[in-house]
Amino acid sequence: MIEVLVLHGPNLNMLGKREPGIYGRMTLEEMNARLKEVGKMWGLKVHAFQSNSEGEIVEYIHQADERYDYILLNAGAYTHYSYAIHDALRAVDVPAIEIHLSNIHAREPFRRMSVLAPAVIGQIAGFGYDSYELGLYAIKKAVERKVNAR
Question: Its quaternary structure (predicted)?
Fold first, then answer.
């Protein structure tokens, strides 16, 4: 089974309460349960963690090198300035996909820049909770391509 680390960054523990007009009403716990269910249908084992701490996110990424096949990362506000997370993604041999609930390119100017983008294989933004599910789908398709290429 393909092991997927889903990392939720700062303030995502407030989903369902924080600006529901932008981020929706589903809680983080509800979303993680949904991702685990969808992942299971697609042969992916989803492990989800949330941290408000940049250093803790870096540690999860470092640990992913030996434990996970893919990373889905919503780094929240760290997306726009965390070179530490960028460097951690570059330091491990685990493909990562950057995820955002909102369309960061249509928001405030400071949110339009991702310093993580050069360190990930792709970015999915603007589809609300479905952004995460689309990330899992991208992993499913990547795995299928690898199997079919053999």
Answer: Homododecamer.
